[in-house]
Amino acid sequence: MRQSIAIICLGFIFALPIGSNVLAQKNPDWTEPFPPFRIAGNLYYVGSKGLANYLVTTSEGNILINSDLEANVPMIEASIEKLGFKFKDTKILLISHAHWDHDAGSAKIKKMTGASYMVMDADVSVVESGGKTDFQYGNRPDFLYPPGKVDRVLHDGDKVTLGGTVLVAHLTPGHTKGCTTWTLSVTEGGKTYNVVIVGSPNVNPGYKLIHNESYPQIAEDYERMWKVLKSLPCDIFLGAHGSYFGLEEKYALIKDKGANPFVDPSGYKKFVAEKEQEFHTELTRQQLASK
Question: What is the pLDDT of residues 169-183, one digit of tens each?
Answer without folding.
Answer: 999 999 999 999 999
